[in-house]
Amino acid sequence: MAHAVTAPPGTGGGERAAALAVRGLAKTYPGGRRALAGVDFEVAAGEVFALLGPNGAGKSTTMRILTTLSRPDAGTATIGGVDVVREPQKARRLIGYVAQRSGVDASGTGRENLTLQGRLHGLSGRTLAARVDALLETVGLTEIADRGTREYSGGTRRKLDIAMGLVHEPRVLFLDEPTTGLDPEVRAEIWEHITGLAGAGALTILLTTHYLEEADRLAGRVAILDRGTIVAQGTPAELKGDLRGDAIHVEVLDPAAAEPARRVLAGLARVREVTVDGVTVRALVEDAAGAVPLVLAALTERGVTASSVAVARPSLDDVYLHYAGRSAKEERA
Amino acid sequence: MSTIASQSWFMTARLLRGTVREPLFLIIGLVQPAIWLLIFGQLFYRVTDLQGFGDGRPYLDYLTPGVVVMMALTRGAWSGGNVLEELDHGVLDRFLVSPVSRAALIAGHLCQQAITIMAQAVLVLGLALAMGARFAGGPVGALVLLLAAILMVLAVGSLSMSFALVIRRSQSLTAVIQFVLLPLVFLSSAFMDQSLAAGWIRTIARFNPIDWAVLAGRSALAEHPDWQLIGTRLLWLAVLAALCALVAVRSFRSYQRSL
Ligand SMILES: Nc1ncnc2c1ncn2[C@@H]1O[C@H](COP(=O)(O)OP(=O)(O)O)[C@@H](O)[C@H]1O
Ligand SMILES: [Mg+2]
Protein backbone atom coordinates (compact mmCIF):
# COMPACT_ATOMS: atom_id res chain seq x y z
CA MET A 1 0.00 0.00 0.00
CA ALA A 2 1.23 3.42 -0.99
CA HIS A 3 -0.20 4.95 2.13
CA ALA A 4 0.79 2.31 4.58
CA VAL A 5 1.45 3.86 7.92
CA THR A 6 5.22 3.98 8.05
CA ALA A 7 7.30 6.07 10.37
CA PRO A 8 7.02 9.70 9.41
CA PRO A 9 10.10 11.92 9.60
CA GLY A 10 10.96 13.26 13.00
CA THR A 11 9.97 10.22 14.97
CA GLY A 12 13.29 8.42 14.87
CA GLY A 13 15.27 7.62 17.97
CA GLY A 14 14.54 5.20 20.72
CA GLU A 15 12.33 7.20 23.05
CA ARG A 16 8.59 7.15 22.72
CA ALA A 17 7.84 10.12 20.48
CA ALA A 18 4.70 12.13 21.06
CA ALA A 19 2.09 10.91 18.62
CA LEU A 20 0.41 14.26 19.01
CA ALA A 21 1.89 17.55 20.16
CA VAL A 22 -0.23 20.67 20.48
CA ARG A 23 1.33 24.02 21.39
CA GLY A 24 -0.33 27.36 21.95
CA LEU A 25 -3.27 26.56 19.73
CA ALA A 26 -5.57 29.57 19.35
CA LYS A 27 -8.56 30.15 17.15
CA THR A 28 -11.08 32.94 16.78
CA TYR A 29 -13.91 32.27 14.35
CA PRO A 30 -14.87 34.84 11.74
CA GLY A 31 -17.37 36.98 13.58
CA GLY A 32 -15.16 37.30 16.63
CA ARG A 33 -16.07 34.16 18.59
CA ARG A 34 -12.93 33.06 20.40
CA ALA A 35 -12.98 29.27 20.58
CA LEU A 36 -9.41 28.49 21.66
CA ALA A 37 -7.11 30.71 23.68
CA GLY A 38 -3.81 28.84 23.72
CA VAL A 39 -4.14 25.11 24.20
CA ASP A 40 -1.16 22.87 24.95
CA PHE A 41 -1.03 19.14 25.39
CA GLU A 42 0.87 16.08 24.27
CA VAL A 43 -0.28 12.55 23.70
CA ALA A 44 2.17 9.68 23.65
CA ALA A 45 1.95 6.92 21.08
CA GLY A 46 -0.56 4.26 22.11
CA GLU A 47 -2.16 6.48 24.71
CA VAL A 48 -5.86 7.29 25.08
CA PHE A 49 -6.29 10.95 25.91
CA ALA A 50 -9.62 12.61 26.69
CA LEU A 51 -10.53 16.26 26.28
CA LEU A 52 -13.25 16.86 28.79
CA GLY A 53 -15.35 19.97 28.76
CA PRO A 54 -18.80 21.51 28.57
CA ASN A 55 -20.53 22.51 25.35
CA GLY A 56 -18.73 25.36 23.67
CA ALA A 57 -15.46 24.71 25.49
CA GLY A 58 -13.62 24.31 22.19
CA LYS A 59 -13.35 20.52 22.00
CA SER A 60 -14.62 20.20 18.44
CA THR A 61 -12.59 23.18 17.32
CA THR A 62 -9.44 21.49 18.63
CA MET A 63 -10.39 18.28 16.85
CA ARG A 64 -11.13 20.09 13.59
CA ILE A 65 -7.78 21.84 13.64
CA LEU A 66 -5.91 18.62 14.38
CA THR A 67 -7.73 16.84 11.55
CA THR A 68 -6.85 19.63 9.06
CA LEU A 69 -10.46 20.72 8.64
CA SER A 70 -9.90 24.07 10.27
CA ARG A 71 -6.90 26.34 10.62
CA PRO A 72 -5.57 27.82 13.83
CA ASP A 73 -4.76 31.53 14.15
CA ALA A 74 -1.73 30.72 16.25
CA GLY A 75 0.14 27.76 17.63
CA THR A 76 1.23 24.48 16.12
CA ALA A 77 0.04 20.94 16.09
CA THR A 78 2.04 17.96 14.92
CA ILE A 79 1.01 14.39 14.40
CA GLY A 80 3.96 12.03 14.56
CA GLY A 81 6.13 15.04 13.78
CA VAL A 82 4.04 16.15 10.79
CA ASP A 83 2.75 19.70 11.07
CA VAL A 84 -0.99 19.67 10.34
CA VAL A 85 -1.00 23.21 8.94
CA ARG A 86 2.11 22.98 6.81
CA GLU A 87 1.73 19.42 5.54
CA PRO A 88 -1.97 18.65 5.71
CA GLN A 89 -1.88 15.96 3.01
CA LYS A 90 0.77 14.05 4.90
CA ALA A 91 -1.09 14.46 8.17
CA ARG A 92 -4.32 13.16 6.61
CA ARG A 93 -2.71 9.82 5.88
CA LEU A 94 -1.92 9.39 9.56
CA ILE A 95 -5.29 10.19 11.06
CA GLY A 96 -8.77 8.83 11.32
CA TYR A 97 -11.62 11.11 12.35
CA VAL A 98 -15.04 10.40 13.77
CA ALA A 99 -16.80 13.74 13.78
CA GLN A 100 -19.31 14.88 16.36
CA ARG A 101 -22.05 14.65 13.78
CA SER A 102 -22.06 11.55 11.63
CA GLY A 103 -20.49 11.68 8.19
CA VAL A 104 -22.46 8.74 6.83
CA ASP A 105 -23.84 9.26 3.35
CA ALA A 106 -27.53 8.41 3.56
CA SER A 107 -27.82 7.42 -0.09
CA GLY A 108 -25.35 4.56 0.25
CA THR A 109 -25.18 1.29 2.16
CA GLY A 110 -22.82 0.73 5.06
CA ARG A 111 -20.42 -1.20 2.87
CA GLU A 112 -20.48 1.47 0.17
CA ASN A 113 -19.72 4.20 2.68
CA LEU A 114 -16.84 2.25 4.11
CA THR A 115 -15.46 1.22 0.73
CA LEU A 116 -15.53 4.78 -0.59
CA GLN A 117 -13.64 6.03 2.45
CA GLY A 118 -11.00 3.38 1.79
CA ARG A 119 -10.77 4.38 -1.87
CA LEU A 120 -10.26 8.02 -0.96
CA HIS A 121 -7.28 6.85 1.04
CA GLY A 122 -5.90 5.06 -1.97
CA LEU A 123 -6.89 1.52 -1.04
CA SER A 124 -8.29 -0.74 -3.72
CA GLY A 125 -8.97 -4.25 -4.86
CA ARG A 126 -8.74 -7.21 -2.55
CA THR A 127 -6.88 -5.37 0.19
CA LEU A 128 -9.76 -2.95 0.46
CA ALA A 129 -12.50 -5.58 0.25
CA ALA A 130 -10.82 -7.66 2.94
CA ARG A 131 -10.34 -4.70 5.23
CA VAL A 132 -13.93 -3.58 4.77
CA ASP A 133 -15.18 -7.06 5.62
CA ALA A 134 -12.97 -7.27 8.68
CA LEU A 135 -14.04 -3.87 9.98
CA LEU A 136 -17.72 -4.56 9.43
CA GLU A 137 -17.24 -7.74 11.43
CA THR A 138 -15.38 -5.92 14.21
CA VAL A 139 -18.09 -3.34 14.74
CA GLY A 140 -20.84 -5.92 14.28
CA LEU A 141 -22.38 -4.57 11.10
CA THR A 142 -21.83 -7.55 8.81
CA GLU A 143 -25.49 -8.47 8.67
CA ILE A 144 -26.77 -5.04 7.73
CA ALA A 145 -23.75 -3.97 5.70
CA ASP A 146 -25.67 -3.99 2.43
CA ARG A 147 -28.69 -2.12 3.71
CA GLY A 148 -29.18 1.58 3.10
CA THR A 149 -27.83 3.62 5.99
CA ARG A 150 -31.10 5.51 6.19
CA GLU A 151 -32.42 2.47 8.04
CA TYR A 152 -29.56 2.52 10.57
CA SER A 153 -30.15 3.56 14.15
CA GLY A 154 -28.04 6.29 15.73
CA GLY A 155 -25.83 3.70 17.42
CA THR A 156 -25.34 1.67 14.26
CA ARG A 157 -24.44 4.77 12.31
CA ARG A 158 -21.90 5.63 15.01
CA LYS A 159 -20.28 2.23 14.67
CA LEU A 160 -20.08 2.74 10.92
CA ASP A 161 -18.53 6.16 11.54
CA ILE A 162 -15.88 4.54 13.70
CA ALA A 163 -15.21 1.88 11.07
CA MET A 164 -14.82 4.63 8.46
CA GLY A 165 -12.30 6.37 10.67
CA LEU A 166 -10.26 3.17 10.82
CA VAL A 167 -10.40 1.83 7.27
CA HIS A 168 -6.96 3.13 6.28
CA GLU A 169 -5.33 1.96 9.53
CA PRO A 170 -4.51 5.39 10.91
CA ARG A 171 -1.95 6.06 13.62
CA VAL A 172 -4.07 8.50 15.53
CA LEU A 173 -7.82 8.23 15.86
CA PHE A 174 -9.90 11.29 16.74
CA LEU A 175 -13.28 10.62 18.32
CA ASP A 176 -15.42 13.72 18.86
CA GLU A 177 -18.10 12.88 21.42
CA PRO A 178 -18.40 9.30 20.21
CA THR A 179 -21.30 8.35 22.47
CA THR A 180 -23.29 11.55 22.91
CA GLY A 181 -26.99 10.95 22.49
CA LEU A 182 -26.75 7.15 22.47
CA ASP A 183 -28.56 4.64 24.69
CA PRO A 184 -26.59 3.37 27.67
CA GLU A 185 -26.31 -0.13 26.15
CA VAL A 186 -24.96 1.21 22.87
CA ARG A 187 -22.65 3.51 24.77
CA ALA A 188 -21.26 0.54 26.66
CA GLU A 189 -20.77 -1.32 23.40
CA ILE A 190 -18.89 1.58 21.86
CA TRP A 191 -16.75 1.86 24.98
CA GLU A 192 -15.87 -1.76 24.53
CA HIS A 193 -14.81 -1.15 20.94
CA ILE A 194 -12.69 1.80 21.97
CA THR A 195 -11.10 -0.17 24.78
CA GLY A 196 -10.40 -2.94 22.29
CA LEU A 197 -8.75 -0.54 19.86
CA ALA A 198 -6.68 0.99 22.60
CA GLY A 199 -5.69 -2.41 23.96
CA ALA A 200 -4.07 -3.39 20.68
CA GLY A 201 -1.48 -0.76 21.55
CA ALA A 202 -0.62 0.60 18.13
CA LEU A 203 -3.32 3.22 17.97
CA THR A 204 -3.25 6.59 19.70
CA ILE A 205 -6.71 7.91 20.54
CA LEU A 206 -7.82 11.44 21.27
CA LEU A 207 -11.42 11.61 22.34
CA THR A 208 -13.64 14.40 23.52
CA THR A 209 -16.55 13.96 25.83
CA HIS A 210 -18.65 15.73 28.36
CA TYR A 211 -19.39 12.48 30.16
CA LEU A 212 -17.02 12.29 33.07
CA GLU A 213 -17.61 8.61 33.38
CA GLU A 214 -16.50 8.14 29.80
CA ALA A 215 -13.22 9.94 30.34
CA ASP A 216 -12.68 8.05 33.59
CA ARG A 217 -13.33 4.68 31.96
CA LEU A 218 -11.46 5.08 28.71
CA ALA A 219 -8.68 7.58 29.07
CA GLY A 220 -5.22 7.16 30.50
CA ARG A 221 -4.96 10.91 30.74
CA VAL A 222 -7.52 13.68 30.76
CA ALA A 223 -7.40 17.39 30.07
CA ILE A 224 -10.21 19.63 31.22
CA LEU A 225 -10.99 22.26 28.65
CA ASP A 226 -12.99 25.26 29.69
CA ARG A 227 -13.68 28.30 27.53
CA GLY A 228 -10.83 27.58 25.17
CA THR A 229 -8.14 26.88 27.76
CA ILE A 230 -6.96 23.75 29.49
CA VAL A 231 -7.55 24.25 33.18
CA ALA A 232 -6.18 20.93 34.37
CA GLN A 233 -4.60 17.80 33.01
CA GLY A 234 -3.29 14.51 34.25
CA THR A 235 -4.40 10.94 34.87
CA PRO A 236 -7.88 10.67 36.38
CA ALA A 237 -6.25 9.56 39.62
CA GLU A 238 -3.90 12.53 39.68
CA LEU A 239 -6.69 14.95 39.05
CA LYS A 240 -8.76 13.46 41.82
CA GLY A 241 -5.74 13.43 44.11
CA ASP A 242 -5.22 17.13 43.49
CA LEU A 243 -8.36 17.75 45.44
CA ARG A 244 -7.38 17.46 49.06
CA GLY A 245 -9.81 15.60 51.24
CA ASP A 246 -13.02 13.77 50.48
CA ALA A 247 -16.25 14.56 48.80
CA ILE A 248 -19.39 14.69 50.85
CA HIS A 249 -22.78 14.36 49.18
CA VAL A 250 -25.90 15.41 51.04
CA GLU A 251 -29.24 14.52 49.53
CA VAL A 252 -32.41 16.32 50.56
CA LEU A 253 -35.95 15.17 49.86
CA ASP A 254 -37.33 18.43 48.62
CA PRO A 255 -35.41 20.43 45.97
CA ALA A 256 -36.54 23.55 47.83
CA ALA A 257 -34.47 22.39 50.79
CA ALA A 258 -31.31 22.20 48.73
CA GLU A 259 -30.46 25.88 49.00
CA PRO A 260 -30.84 26.04 52.80
CA ALA A 261 -28.73 22.89 53.02
CA ARG A 262 -26.07 24.52 50.87
CA ARG A 263 -26.02 27.52 53.20
CA VAL A 264 -25.66 25.25 56.21
CA LEU A 265 -22.69 23.44 54.69
CA ALA A 266 -21.07 26.63 53.46
CA GLY A 267 -21.22 27.97 56.99
CA LEU A 268 -19.18 25.12 58.42
CA ALA A 269 -15.45 25.35 58.96
CA ARG A 270 -13.19 23.22 56.74
CA VAL A 271 -15.96 22.63 54.20
CA ARG A 272 -15.09 23.89 50.71
CA GLU A 273 -16.62 24.18 47.27
CA VAL A 274 -20.24 23.65 48.13
CA THR A 275 -22.53 23.30 45.13
CA VAL A 276 -26.10 22.30 44.48
CA ASP A 277 -27.16 19.90 41.77
CA GLY A 278 -30.88 19.13 41.96
CA VAL A 279 -31.48 17.52 45.36
CA THR A 280 -27.78 16.84 45.90
CA VAL A 281 -25.47 19.20 47.70
CA ARG A 282 -21.78 18.45 47.25
CA ALA A 283 -18.81 19.69 49.14
CA LEU A 284 -15.20 18.84 49.83
CA VAL A 285 -14.07 18.29 53.40
CA GLU A 286 -10.71 17.59 55.03
CA ASP A 287 -11.87 14.63 57.07
CA ALA A 288 -15.15 13.23 55.94
CA ALA A 289 -15.61 10.74 58.77
CA GLY A 290 -15.27 13.48 61.34
CA ALA A 291 -17.37 15.90 59.34
CA VAL A 292 -20.47 13.75 58.92
CA PRO A 293 -21.76 14.13 62.51
CA LEU A 294 -21.10 17.88 62.38
CA VAL A 295 -22.94 18.22 59.08
CA LEU A 296 -25.90 16.20 60.38
CA ALA A 297 -26.06 18.20 63.57
CA ALA A 298 -25.93 21.52 61.74
CA LEU A 299 -28.66 20.43 59.32
CA THR A 300 -30.94 19.27 62.14
CA GLU A 301 -30.36 22.49 64.01
CA ARG A 302 -31.63 24.51 61.01
CA GLY A 303 -34.54 22.15 60.41
CA VAL A 304 -33.27 20.73 57.09
CA THR A 305 -34.02 17.04 56.63
CA ALA A 306 -31.41 15.10 54.69
CA SER A 307 -32.42 11.80 53.12
CA SER A 308 -28.81 10.69 52.94
CA VAL A 309 -25.30 11.84 53.67
CA ALA A 310 -22.60 9.97 51.80
CA VAL A 311 -18.86 10.22 51.76
CA ALA A 312 -16.78 9.39 48.70
CA ARG A 313 -13.39 9.90 47.18
CA PRO A 314 -13.69 12.87 44.82
CA SER A 315 -15.05 11.82 41.44
CA LEU A 316 -13.99 13.30 38.17
CA ASP A 317 -17.18 15.30 38.50
CA ASP A 318 -15.79 16.96 41.61
CA VAL A 319 -12.58 17.63 39.71
CA TYR A 320 -14.51 19.16 36.91
CA LEU A 321 -16.47 21.26 39.32
CA HIS A 322 -13.31 22.38 40.99
CA TYR A 323 -11.64 23.55 37.78
CA ALA A 324 -14.47 24.62 35.55
CA GLY A 325 -16.43 26.13 38.41
CA ARG A 326 -19.63 24.42 37.44
CA SER A 327 -21.01 20.94 37.45
CA ALA A 328 -20.95 18.95 34.24
CA LYS A 329 -24.57 17.98 34.78
CA GLU A 330 -25.47 21.61 35.17
CA GLU A 331 -23.85 22.24 31.80
CA ARG A 332 -25.82 19.56 30.12
CA ALA A 333 -29.11 20.75 31.52
CA MET B 1 -3.53 12.98 -12.72
CA SER B 2 -4.88 9.48 -12.98
CA THR B 3 -5.47 9.63 -9.24
CA ILE B 4 -7.63 12.73 -9.66
CA ALA B 5 -9.49 11.07 -12.51
CA SER B 6 -10.21 7.89 -10.55
CA GLN B 7 -11.11 9.82 -7.42
CA SER B 8 -13.47 12.01 -9.45
CA TRP B 9 -15.04 8.87 -10.79
CA PHE B 10 -15.59 7.44 -7.29
CA MET B 11 -17.36 10.64 -6.33
CA THR B 12 -19.39 10.64 -9.55
CA ALA B 13 -20.40 7.02 -9.05
CA ARG B 14 -21.50 7.76 -5.48
CA LEU B 15 -23.70 10.63 -6.63
CA LEU B 16 -25.13 8.73 -9.60
CA ARG B 17 -26.00 5.87 -7.28
CA GLY B 18 -27.92 8.30 -5.14
CA THR B 19 -29.71 9.69 -8.20
CA VAL B 20 -30.71 6.26 -9.40
CA ARG B 21 -31.88 5.14 -5.95
CA GLU B 22 -33.92 8.24 -5.46
CA PRO B 23 -35.05 9.16 -8.92
CA LEU B 24 -37.65 11.64 -7.69
CA PHE B 25 -35.54 14.66 -8.62
CA LEU B 26 -34.74 13.18 -11.99
CA ILE B 27 -38.43 12.61 -12.59
CA ILE B 28 -39.38 16.10 -11.50
CA GLY B 29 -36.59 17.35 -13.75
CA LEU B 30 -38.27 15.55 -16.65
CA VAL B 31 -41.88 16.39 -15.90
CA GLN B 32 -41.09 20.07 -16.05
CA PRO B 33 -39.68 20.09 -19.60
CA ALA B 34 -42.47 17.79 -20.73
CA ILE B 35 -44.97 20.33 -19.47
CA TRP B 36 -43.12 23.16 -21.17
CA LEU B 37 -43.15 21.24 -24.43
CA LEU B 38 -46.85 20.50 -24.14
CA ILE B 39 -48.07 23.86 -22.94
CA PHE B 40 -45.77 26.15 -24.85
CA GLY B 41 -46.02 23.94 -27.90
CA GLN B 42 -49.80 24.26 -27.86
CA LEU B 43 -50.01 27.82 -26.59
CA PHE B 44 -47.70 29.42 -29.07
CA TYR B 45 -47.74 27.14 -32.06
CA ARG B 46 -49.15 29.93 -34.20
CA VAL B 47 -46.29 32.34 -33.49
CA THR B 48 -44.45 30.85 -36.42
CA ASP B 49 -47.04 32.61 -38.56
CA LEU B 50 -45.51 35.91 -37.49
CA GLN B 51 -43.39 37.44 -40.14
CA GLY B 52 -39.72 37.09 -39.38
CA PHE B 53 -40.10 34.25 -36.87
CA GLY B 54 -37.54 31.52 -37.10
CA ASP B 55 -36.70 29.73 -40.29
CA GLY B 56 -40.08 28.34 -41.19
CA ARG B 57 -39.88 25.23 -38.97
CA PRO B 58 -42.86 24.39 -36.76
CA TYR B 59 -42.84 25.91 -33.29
CA LEU B 60 -42.27 22.57 -31.55
CA ASP B 61 -39.02 22.13 -33.48
CA TYR B 62 -38.07 25.67 -32.54
CA LEU B 63 -38.97 25.18 -28.89
CA THR B 64 -37.27 21.85 -28.14
CA PRO B 65 -33.65 23.11 -27.93
CA GLY B 66 -34.88 25.93 -25.69
CA VAL B 67 -36.53 23.45 -23.35
CA VAL B 68 -33.43 21.23 -23.22
CA VAL B 69 -31.21 24.19 -22.40
CA MET B 70 -33.64 25.38 -19.77
CA MET B 71 -33.63 21.95 -18.21
CA ALA B 72 -29.82 22.08 -18.05
CA LEU B 73 -30.05 25.49 -16.49
CA THR B 74 -32.48 24.36 -13.80
CA ARG B 75 -30.53 21.21 -13.05
CA GLY B 76 -27.27 23.14 -12.70
CA ALA B 77 -28.85 25.89 -10.65
CA TRP B 78 -30.11 23.52 -7.96
CA SER B 79 -26.87 21.57 -7.71
CA GLY B 80 -25.67 23.87 -4.93
CA GLY B 81 -28.38 22.25 -2.83
CA ASN B 82 -26.60 18.88 -3.05
CA VAL B 83 -23.39 20.47 -1.82
CA LEU B 84 -25.23 22.10 1.07
CA GLU B 85 -26.67 18.76 2.01
CA GLU B 86 -23.23 17.15 2.02
CA LEU B 87 -22.02 20.00 4.12
CA ASP B 88 -24.87 19.79 6.61
CA HIS B 89 -24.60 16.03 7.00
CA GLY B 90 -20.87 16.06 7.65
CA VAL B 91 -20.26 14.01 4.50
CA LEU B 92 -18.04 16.71 3.03
CA ASP B 93 -15.92 16.84 6.20
CA ARG B 94 -15.42 13.12 6.05
CA PHE B 95 -14.06 13.49 2.52
CA LEU B 96 -11.93 16.46 3.47
CA VAL B 97 -10.09 14.60 6.24
CA SER B 98 -8.91 12.10 3.65
CA PRO B 99 -6.11 12.97 1.23
CA VAL B 100 -8.57 13.00 -1.69
CA SER B 101 -7.90 15.68 -4.29
CA ARG B 102 -10.11 18.71 -3.58
CA ALA B 103 -10.65 19.13 -7.32
CA ALA B 104 -12.07 15.62 -7.49
CA LEU B 105 -14.78 16.58 -5.00
CA ILE B 106 -16.00 19.33 -7.36
CA ALA B 107 -15.39 17.26 -10.49
CA GLY B 108 -17.55 14.44 -9.10
CA HIS B 109 -20.54 16.75 -8.87
CA LEU B 110 -19.93 18.21 -12.31
CA CYS B 111 -19.58 14.78 -13.94
CA GLN B 112 -22.76 13.56 -12.30
CA GLN B 113 -24.62 16.60 -13.58
CA ALA B 114 -23.24 16.16 -17.08
CA ILE B 115 -24.27 12.51 -17.16
CA THR B 116 -27.77 13.05 -15.82
CA ILE B 117 -28.42 16.00 -18.13
CA MET B 118 -27.42 13.83 -21.09
CA ALA B 119 -29.93 11.20 -20.10
CA GLN B 120 -32.62 13.79 -19.53
CA ALA B 121 -31.92 15.55 -22.84
CA VAL B 122 -32.15 12.30 -24.77
CA LEU B 123 -35.51 11.60 -23.15
CA VAL B 124 -36.82 15.09 -23.93
CA LEU B 125 -35.67 14.82 -27.55
CA GLY B 126 -37.46 11.49 -27.77
CA LEU B 127 -40.59 13.02 -26.33
CA ALA B 128 -40.45 15.92 -28.80
CA LEU B 129 -40.07 13.45 -31.67
CA ALA B 130 -43.05 11.52 -30.38
CA MET B 131 -45.03 14.75 -30.31
CA GLY B 132 -44.23 15.32 -33.96
CA ALA B 133 -41.08 17.41 -33.94
CA ARG B 134 -38.67 16.80 -36.81
CA PHE B 135 -34.95 17.46 -36.53
CA ALA B 136 -33.30 17.60 -39.92
CA GLY B 137 -29.89 17.97 -38.28
CA GLY B 138 -30.16 14.35 -37.13
CA PRO B 139 -27.87 12.67 -34.57
CA VAL B 140 -25.03 15.12 -35.16
CA GLY B 141 -27.38 18.00 -34.41
CA ALA B 142 -28.60 16.20 -31.31
CA LEU B 143 -25.01 15.72 -30.15
CA VAL B 144 -24.34 19.43 -30.55
CA LEU B 145 -27.41 20.21 -28.45
CA LEU B 146 -26.26 17.72 -25.83
CA LEU B 147 -22.85 19.33 -25.75
CA ALA B 148 -24.40 22.78 -25.37
CA ALA B 149 -26.59 21.47 -22.54
CA ILE B 150 -23.59 19.88 -20.82
CA LEU B 151 -21.54 23.07 -21.02
CA MET B 152 -24.53 24.91 -19.65
CA VAL B 153 -24.95 22.57 -16.71
CA LEU B 154 -21.22 22.73 -15.96
CA ALA B 155 -21.18 26.53 -15.95
CA VAL B 156 -24.35 27.03 -13.95
CA GLY B 157 -23.64 24.06 -11.68
CA SER B 158 -20.23 25.50 -10.80
CA LEU B 159 -21.74 28.86 -9.98
CA SER B 160 -24.47 27.30 -7.89
CA MET B 161 -21.98 25.21 -5.92
CA SER B 162 -19.79 28.27 -5.41
CA PHE B 163 -22.76 30.17 -4.09
CA ALA B 164 -23.65 27.32 -1.76
CA LEU B 165 -20.09 27.09 -0.42
CA VAL B 166 -19.76 30.80 0.20
CA ILE B 167 -23.25 31.70 1.43
CA ARG B 168 -24.14 28.31 2.95
CA ARG B 169 -27.86 28.99 3.18
CA SER B 170 -30.33 27.04 1.12
CA GLN B 171 -33.00 29.76 1.37
CA SER B 172 -30.65 32.28 -0.24
CA LEU B 173 -29.87 29.83 -3.00
CA THR B 174 -33.56 29.28 -3.66
CA ALA B 175 -34.22 33.02 -3.67
CA VAL B 176 -31.45 33.76 -6.14
CA ILE B 177 -32.52 30.95 -8.45
CA GLN B 178 -36.10 32.09 -8.47
CA PHE B 179 -35.12 35.68 -9.00
CA VAL B 180 -32.58 35.13 -11.77
CA LEU B 181 -33.49 32.02 -13.72
CA LEU B 182 -36.74 32.75 -15.48
CA PRO B 183 -35.97 36.34 -16.55
CA LEU B 184 -32.68 35.13 -18.03
CA VAL B 185 -34.51 32.47 -20.02
CA PHE B 186 -36.90 35.04 -21.42
CA LEU B 187 -34.00 37.30 -22.28
CA SER B 188 -32.92 34.67 -24.79
CA SER B 189 -34.37 33.16 -27.90
CA ALA B 190 -35.41 30.01 -26.04
CA PHE B 191 -39.11 30.63 -26.63
CA MET B 192 -39.25 33.66 -28.87
CA ASP B 193 -37.33 34.75 -31.92
CA GLN B 194 -35.09 37.65 -30.98
CA SER B 195 -35.75 39.49 -34.23
CA LEU B 196 -39.27 40.04 -32.87
CA ALA B 197 -38.09 41.29 -29.46
CA ALA B 198 -37.36 44.82 -28.33
CA GLY B 199 -33.92 46.17 -29.14
CA TRP B 200 -32.64 46.15 -25.58
CA ILE B 201 -33.63 42.52 -25.14
CA ARG B 202 -31.79 41.65 -28.31
CA THR B 203 -28.70 43.41 -26.99
CA ILE B 204 -28.83 41.55 -23.69
CA ALA B 205 -29.50 38.23 -25.41
CA ARG B 206 -26.31 38.57 -27.38
CA PHE B 207 -24.37 38.31 -24.11
CA ASN B 208 -26.69 35.74 -22.58
CA PRO B 209 -25.05 32.28 -22.41
CA ILE B 210 -28.51 30.72 -22.49
CA ASP B 211 -28.96 32.24 -25.91
CA TRP B 212 -25.58 30.89 -27.06
CA ALA B 213 -26.59 27.38 -26.09
CA VAL B 214 -30.06 27.65 -27.62
CA LEU B 215 -28.75 29.11 -30.89
CA ALA B 216 -26.07 26.47 -31.25
CA GLY B 217 -28.45 23.61 -30.51
CA ARG B 218 -31.23 24.94 -32.71
CA SER B 219 -28.98 25.64 -35.66
CA ALA B 220 -27.39 22.19 -35.40
CA LEU B 221 -30.82 20.58 -35.57
CA ALA B 222 -31.81 22.58 -38.67
CA GLU B 223 -31.55 21.32 -42.20
CA HIS B 224 -28.61 23.61 -42.97
CA PRO B 225 -26.63 24.17 -39.78
CA ASP B 226 -24.60 27.34 -39.50
CA TRP B 227 -21.37 25.78 -38.31
CA GLN B 228 -19.67 29.08 -37.74
CA LEU B 229 -22.43 30.17 -35.39
CA ILE B 230 -22.39 26.77 -33.69
CA GLY B 231 -18.61 26.76 -33.33
CA THR B 232 -18.33 30.22 -31.82
CA ARG B 233 -21.20 29.75 -29.38
CA LEU B 234 -19.90 26.39 -28.19
CA LEU B 235 -16.45 27.91 -27.78
CA TRP B 236 -17.83 30.77 -25.68
CA LEU B 237 -19.81 28.32 -23.61
CA ALA B 238 -16.72 26.17 -23.08
CA VAL B 239 -14.69 29.19 -21.95
CA LEU B 240 -17.50 30.21 -19.63
CA ALA B 241 -17.79 26.70 -18.17
CA ALA B 242 -14.03 26.60 -17.56
CA LEU B 243 -14.10 29.99 -15.82
CA CYS B 244 -17.03 28.96 -13.66
CA ALA B 245 -15.28 25.72 -12.70
CA LEU B 246 -12.29 27.79 -11.60
CA VAL B 247 -14.60 29.94 -9.49
CA ALA B 248 -15.97 26.76 -7.92
CA VAL B 249 -12.48 25.54 -7.02
CA ARG B 250 -11.67 28.96 -5.54
CA SER B 251 -14.90 28.98 -3.53
CA PHE B 252 -14.03 25.58 -2.23
CA ARG B 253 -10.71 26.91 -0.96
CA SER B 254 -12.35 29.91 0.60
CA TYR B 255 -14.89 27.63 2.26
CA GLN B 256 -12.07 25.62 3.79
CA ARG B 257 -10.27 28.74 4.95
CA SER B 258 -13.43 30.06 6.58
CA LEU B 259 -13.66 27.10 8.95
N1 LIG C 1 -18.04 27.46 12.56
C1 LIG C 1 -18.14 28.27 13.64
N2 LIG C 1 -18.31 29.60 13.48
C2 LIG C 1 -18.37 30.41 14.55
N3 LIG C 1 -18.30 30.01 15.83
C3 LIG C 1 -18.14 28.69 16.06
C4 LIG C 1 -18.05 27.75 14.98
N4 LIG C 1 -17.89 26.52 15.51
C5 LIG C 1 -17.88 26.69 16.84
N5 LIG C 1 -18.04 27.98 17.17
C6 LIG C 1 -18.02 28.54 18.55
O1 LIG C 1 -16.76 28.27 19.13
C7 LIG C 1 -16.91 27.84 20.46
C8 LIG C 1 -16.32 26.46 20.64
O2 LIG C 1 -17.11 25.54 19.94
P1 LIG C 1 -16.78 23.99 19.84
O3 LIG C 1 -15.34 23.83 19.51
O4 LIG C 1 -17.76 23.38 18.92
O5 LIG C 1 -17.04 23.51 21.33
P2 LIG C 1 -17.37 22.06 21.92
O6 LIG C 1 -17.08 21.06 20.86
O7 LIG C 1 -16.49 21.93 23.10
O8 LIG C 1 -18.79 22.08 22.30
C9 LIG C 1 -18.39 27.91 20.76
O9 LIG C 1 -18.65 29.12 21.42
C10 LIG C 1 -19.05 27.87 19.42
O10 LIG C 1 -20.25 28.58 19.44
MG1 LIG D 1 -18.28 19.69 20.03
TrEMBL record, chain B:
Residues annotated as domain ABC transmembrane type-2: 24-255
Primary location group: membrane
Annotated keywords: Antibiotic resistance, Cell membrane, Membrane, Transmembrane, Transmembrane helix, Transport
Pfam families named in the record: ABC2_membrane (PF01061)
GO MF terms held by the record: ABC-type transporter activity
Protein localization: Cell membrane; Membrane
One GO cellular component term noted in the UniProt record for this chain: ATP-binding cassette (ABC) transporter complex
Superkingdom assignment: Bacteria
Protein topology in the membrane: Multi-pass membrane protein
Membrane-spanning intervals of the chain: 24-45, 142-166, 173-192, 234-252
Single GO biological process annotation from the record: response to antibiotic
Family under the similarity heading: Belongs to the ABC-2 integral membrane protein family.
Matches recorded under PANTHER family: NODULATION PROTEIN J
UniProt protein name: Transport permease protein
Gene: pdmR2
